[in-house]
Amino acid sequence: MSHNLLQGKKGIIFGALDSRSIAWKVALESIANGADIILTNAPIALRMGSIHELAKKCNSKIITADATSLEDLNKLFSDSMEYFGGKIDFVLHSIGMSVNVRKKRKYTDLNYDFLMKGLDVSAISFHKMLQVAFKLDAINDFGSILALSYIAAQRTFPDYNDMADNKAYLESVARSFGYHYGKHNKVRINTISQSPTITTAGSGVTGFDAFFEYANKLSPLGNASSEDCAKYCVALFSEYTKSVTMQNLFHDGGFSRTGVSKDLIDMLKNK
Ligand SMILES: NC(=O)c1ccc[n+]([C@@H]2O[C@H](COP(=O)([O-])OP(=O)(O)OC[C@H]3O[C@@H](n4cnc5c(N)ncnc54)[C@H](O)[C@@H]3O)[C@@H](O)[C@H]2O)c1
After folding, report:
1. Regarding beta strands 139-149 and 188-194, do their DSSP bridges make them parallel or antiparallel, or are they unpaired?
2. What is the pLDDT of residues 99-126, one digit of tens each?
3. How many domains does the chain have?
């Protein structure tokens, strides 16, 4: 059900690869709430994924950009302002990738070239897009910028590997840039720490099925779905959260606040 929370607002959504992507759900929910959006992803994702199908559904333009390239980001934000005929109201950073995870390197045996690549894609890209938008003065007053994170930034999940460190950096950028952008023209910057979700990036982590199930059993509400995450993003893009900034917001069915659950105890007792 739409509440038209984003009526008249214009946004850029990074990271829709296929219909399982969290960004895909955010794009659909934003459109359902009255927004106009531009979709963007890396050139390879445009070839491998199904973003064109999403663009058709959303009646939106696609602008290719590698989120690690300042040149691409400058073009993306400039072209978006030209296309919309004005500044942008919201942006979603839904990007993550670790070469060490892909190549199954252990955390105690990381390849540092891989580490730098993953950090650039997953976390520094957030600073880059914020800095480009800031310098171009591309975001309207009280605009809202979100990135997606994971609780491994606070607690250890061994197989999440160097992505844990990338998420810690990402959340720190939201706080630090949130101060400067807030002072500049009241732009809000937050991260949403989402439950494990079955997507291309999520399923790449070793043991994903087990920690998906573990989180589901620990969380009193169960794992938060990507559809609900999209609704939360829309609320944070909207006027209803105008004073929320510099936060890492858990969207996890209560996982982050639960020590143990009866479901898990019963499971261990029955072993
Ligand atoms: N799936 C989960 O369990 C989970 C949980 C919490 C947070 N997250 C986070 O949600 C975000 C979205 O991931 P997802 O689970 O929807 O998976 P996904 O694989 O669908 O999305 C990841 C996206 O990153 C894009 N990307 C990679 N390199 C890029 C680059 N250089 N430039 C631009 N885009 C690039 C990919 O093309 C893809 O669209 C990520 O930040 C991820 O860490 C996921």
Report:
1. parallel
2. 999 999 999 999 999 999 999 999 999 9
3. 1
Q: Which residue puts its alpha carbon closest to atom 12 of ligand 1?
A: 94
Model confidence band, residue 74 (pLDDT cutoffs 50, 70, 90): very high
Lowest average pLDDT, out of 39-43, 252-256, 258-262, 264-268, goes to: 264-268
- Ligand 1 pocket, residues with Cβ under 6 angstroms: 14-15, 17, 21-23, 41-42, 45, 66-68, 94-97, 121, 148-150, 194, 196-197, 199-202
Per-residue pLDDT tens over the stretch 240-250: 999 999 999 99
Residue 1 in any domain: the answer is: no
Would 3 be classed as within a structural domain?
A: no
Query: What domain range is 235 assigned to?
Result: 10-269
pTM of the model: 0.98
Which pLDDT score is estimated for 207? 83
Top mutation candidate among 47, 73, 95, 209 for ligand 1, by most atoms within 8 Å of CB: 95
| Element holding 95 (H helix, E strand) | none
Sheet containing 188-194: order of strands: 61-62, 36-40, 10-14, 88-93, 139-149, 188-194, 248-251
The tally of CA atoms less than 13 A away on the side-chain side of residue 2 is: 13
CA 83, 85, 87, 90 dihedral sign is negative
- Structural domain contains residue 219: yes
